[in-house]
Amino acid sequence: MTLELVSSTPPPPGSAPGSHGGPRILAPGAPPSPGPIPSDLARHLVFGEALVWWDEKNGIHLGPVLLVVGAAVAILGFVSVLAPQFWLQPWGELWKPVAALLSPALLVLVRERVNQRAVLVTDAGILDVDRQGRVGRLAFDAIAAVRRDALRGGLVLDGPRGRVRIPPSLADDARQAVASQRRHRVRATAAVDDPTGWLR
Question: pTM of the entire structure?
Fold first, then answer.
């Protein structure tokens, strides 16, 4: 079940009445959202809050994982050429260096998994909802710092009463959506600590 929202993007021509269509632009200047927001995400909006943009990372991008595995295979290929006796070791010893070479792929998989979350931008602030339903919420004026997330990738927005995490794949669209709402707002007197330039 999904919650229908008023959108500036009409359904595609020829679509059936009541069909959800495709991406929708929910506010001027905001990037397209993938469609109507699912009800399990919509329930985190407060009364009177207007949704500007939303999207979610709900899958694992295999590109980074395959890149790491490919690099490990290439290294093992060089080892085979330069030191063929490497493969003559007993399996009890051989698995350790092979596992060490492939372990970064596991770390990338874990990072992709923990980055699975939805990000919502409203007319008042930004929210993230992780796979367990935990919500981080910050009003625009409450954002005190923007940092790169060294462990997960992406960004962390910090405030005195909350923290919002944005996956790398959603960072650009989230930035555009936030900018569309902050453009005509009176800025707070306190400067945001933003070495990334994400809020500029």
Answer: 0.74
